[in-house]
Amino acid sequence: MPENASRTSLTQYLHHIYDNDIQFKICDEGVSNIEKGVVSIVQYIATYALERCQEYVQRRLDSTFMKKIKDCKSEIIGVGSFYERTKNGFPDEFDFLFPICTLETDGQCHNWALRFTFEYIHYAIFRFSEHIDEHRKELPYNEWVIFKRLVERRGPSSKLEFLYKKCKDGAKETPLHVDLVPCIKIIFSPIDIYKNDFIQGSLLCKKFERDVSLTNSFVLVDHEHPVSFAETEVRFMREVLSDKHRKVYRLLKFLLNGKGDNEKLRSKFRVKGLCSYYIKCVMIYHHFKCGTENDNEEALCVLTVLRDLKCDLENKHVTLLTHVKNVDKYISTTEALKKVLGHLEKIQKSYKDRNLNLESAAKLQYHRLEKEVQQNIREERIIECVVCCVRQAVFFCGTYFKIRSQCSTCLGRYLKICNIHCTCCESCEVRHECIFIIKYLACICMCVIAVVGIIYLLIIY
User: Fold this and answer.
1) pLDDT at residue 82 in the model
2) Can you tell me the distance from the alpha carbon of 346 to that of 340, in angstroms, rounded to the nearest whole number?
3) Which has the least CB within 10 A, 2, 14, 25, 392?
């Protein structure tokens, strides 16, 4: 089949995935209700936390830098896939930056900011969650969304859980997950971008500098992710990235992480698949070098980015926008990624294979780990059974020596005794193997005993 036809086949396959598995399954009004409800409550929590920590924040800011403070507000900033318009499926995840203060700089930033601790902010959020019943009446009223609890503190964020109570499309009490990240916002003049210490020392993608200068701000988060350009990333994904590449990015997230498959992988095995942020960074690099911007075929870009990811992981290298201290957490295994890539290449080559059932890389990795765990459990059970069998065989040997009768039925009686199973496997799935092992060992013991008896008789006579 010609290359164009095969590429069209893969594109049609990707379009089918995009239309049926990726796009929102909820009306625009429902999305707006969810967003308004979440934003109003998160804004209240941020204001509450900052008011409780205002004195601490002022004390931590050295007097030398007090004049650089532009404001000290708690206005949250929406970032992440929902605000980038790249969220797949139901809008159940939201990310917010929480600037505890905004500083103006002439281009020189200082290391004091990196040493700033946000523990007091996280503790204030924790206290709010612990006493939520006392604050429930003070929260902004919303008939669709309610705050449920603080789930955990993970990395630089406090993870909050909300509940979507009312949905005209049929969903009932859907959980919503929110990441709230306290930070310090730095504002700079675009002409100072090339002499700003943090930008020049952190930004790896030099072609991204122009977009950073247009935003003229960045945030300081923590020691592992000192500089974040999340606001610039939102503007880039919404306004700069083409519709085609935005669609490619959403397809890649689905192909690699599926519908919550990455979260299932992390919750059960404490293993992460490919991070969405890492995929986004590779997509941004691809945008700058892609030569098919005017082509409507997404298949070629999907295959190209997957091959770039595969090459990165094989070389233990990650393509990010900024420097990070812990790079290993972005590195994942390539086995599942290779299967997804091979599957798509097979569809591209063969028109008949376009309807093959495709699982995400995270789901494939989940199944592989689950199979390994089951195999390990089975091996442990068999080892337990073998140990039990040895004990039974020893017991049977002792029983044999206690048999004083010289009648011809002794061997038959003994073998009848051996026709039992291991007591530790009363209900396990390897019971039949235990019975076989016990019989086998018992027979071996009988043979050994017979040989010893013959040798004993030869020595006596």
Assistant:
1) 93
2) 10
3) 2
3-class SS string, 106-148:
CCCCCHHHCCCCCHHHHHHHHHHHHCHHHHHHHCCCCCCEEEE
The pLDDT confidence band at residue 12, using thresholds 50, 70 and 90, is: confident
What contacts 90, CB < 8 A, 6 or more positions away? Answer: 24, 25, 26, 171, 174
209 and 128 Cβ atoms separated by less than 8 Å: no
Tokens of 406: 């010289």
pLDDT at 394 over 80: no
Give the pLDDT band (50/70/90) at residue 284.
very high
The residues that bridge with 153 in the sheet, in sequence order, are 158
Residue 87, CB-side half-sphere exposure with 13 Å CA sphere: 19
Percent of the chain scored above 90 by pLDDT? 18
Burial 401-419 (b: 16+ CB within 10 A, else e): eeeeeeeeeeeeebeeebe
Six-digit token string for 58: 């002022």
Among 413, 412, 433, CA closest to 422: 433
Q: Where are the domains of the chain?
A: 3-359, 381-460
Task: Work out the number of other CB atoms within 10 angstroms of the CB of residue 181.
Answer: 26
Judge contact between 328 and 206, C-beta under 8 A.
no
Q: How far apart are CA 219 and CA 209, in angstroms?
A: 15
* Backbone φ, ψ for residue 184 (5° rounding): -115, 125
How far, in Å, CA of 116 to CA of 221, rounded? 9
Tell me: pLDDT of 296 over 70.
Answer: no
Of 23-27, 161-165, 339-343, which has the strongest mean pLDDT?
A: 161-165
Q: Which residue has the higher pLDDT, 332 or 247?
A: 247
**Of residues 193, 201, 206, the one with CA closest to residue 284:** 206
pLDDT tens-place string over residues 104-142: 765 555 555 555 668 888 999 999 999 988 888 888 877
